């Protein structure tokens, strides 16, 4: 016990540590104040106390915001570990009753997964836990994993092939379908490979890339297609397909759920494209969090209900 700095420990509290992590994440006191429901002067006062306790500026003012010092970056994993332990202790001490809980959770996924699962998940949460609010964010797989790691979201949904320190639940295994406007001459039946590569294609890519998984598979056959457009999201792509002669190769689950609504024909692709898994992830640090475990369970329930509806049609 002699090595413990009891004086400085007494000067710290959990709110200060949470503020420190929030400043690291956002780099702006105004954003932190809005997120935590505080005044900007209160955040500045907390930062002054943190600087005094740790004997370091921690953040330097720059034109773009607050830049963490080397000491702040060194402290980050240690502070996160402390918050994790305290959070686990609180969860265990208070228990978790969804019907009476008050909290905010954030979910990140690409627009297709939010379209498939988001509305049903929101409806389920309103029934089971009306005091829990939820924010949905459109995030690609890498952005979603980074947001999960940085505590910006509580759960991620998508196709994640990367290894990640997360607890995951399989929602569905999916494949691909070719879609285009209902009266597209190419889609009166399933297109042949020659017809397929001769068509003008649209690809869904948040970065605007004109090359994707289909092109890699076509190369195995010594073929290539002509991609003339890229859209950042699936549903905007479906809207574009309904008004053009373009075709697209998209996840079968999305084509099945929204093809008819956008007036699209849905056909089998002329090549075999590998299947992929859609998973829901929470960070492993939240393994003992009843809230996060409950949230993960709700997504799994929604996915099972969606799969049951699909089999019944």
From TrEMBL:
A GO molecular function held by the record: DNA binding
HTH lysR-type domain residues: 12-69
Cited SUPFAM superfamilies: Periplasmic binding protein-like II, Winged helix' DNA-binding domain
PROSITE patterns linked to this entry: HTH_LYSR
Keyword Transcription regulation: yes
Keywords: DNA-binding, Nodulation, Transcription, Transcription regulation
UniProt keyword annotation of Transcription present: yes
UniProt similarity note: Belongs to the LysR transcriptional regulatory family.
Protein name: LysR family transcriptional regulator
Species of the source: Oricola cellulosilytica
Taxonomic placement: Bacteria, Pseudomonadati, Pseudomonadota, Alphaproteobacteria, Hyphomicrobiales
């Amino acid at each position: 016990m002699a090595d413990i700095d009891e004086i400085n420990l007494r000067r710290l509290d959990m709110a200060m540590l949470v503020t420190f992590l929030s400043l690291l994440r956002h780099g702006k006191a105004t954003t932190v104040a809005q997120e935590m429901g505080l005044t900007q002067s209160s955040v500045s006062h907390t930062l002054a106390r943190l600087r005094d306790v740790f004997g370091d500026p921690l953040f330097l003012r720059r034109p773009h915001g607050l830049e963490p010092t080397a000491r702040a970056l060194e402290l980050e994993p240690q502070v996160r570990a402390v918050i994790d332990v305290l959070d686990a202790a609180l969860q265990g001490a208070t228990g978790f009753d969804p019907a009476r809980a008050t909290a905010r959770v954030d979910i990140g996924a690409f627009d297709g997964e939010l379209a498939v699962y988001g509305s049903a998940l929101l409806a389920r949460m309103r029934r089971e836990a009306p005091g829990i609010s939820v924010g949905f964010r459109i995030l690609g797989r890498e952005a979603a994993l980074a947001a999960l790691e940085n505590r910006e979201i509580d759960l991620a949904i998508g196709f994640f092939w990367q290894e990640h320190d997360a607890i995951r639940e399989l929602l569905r295994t999916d494949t691909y379908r070719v879609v285009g406007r209902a009266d597209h001459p190419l889609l009166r039946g399933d297109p042949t490979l020659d017809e397929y590569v001769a068509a003008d294609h649209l690809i869904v890519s948040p970065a605007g890339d004109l090359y994707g998984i289909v092109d890699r598979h076509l190369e195995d056959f010594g073929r290539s297609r002509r991609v003339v457009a890229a859209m950042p999201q699936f549903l905007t792509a479906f809207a574009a397909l309904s008004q053009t002669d373009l075709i697209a190769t998209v996840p079968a689950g999305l084509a099945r759920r929204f093809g008819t609504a956008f007036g699209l024909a849905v056909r089998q692709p002329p090549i075999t494209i590998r299947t992929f898994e859609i998973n829901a992830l929470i960070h492993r640090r939240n393994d003992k969090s009843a809230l996060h475990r409950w949230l993960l369970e709700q997504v799994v329930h929604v996915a099972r209900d969606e799969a049951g509806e699909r089999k019944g049609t």
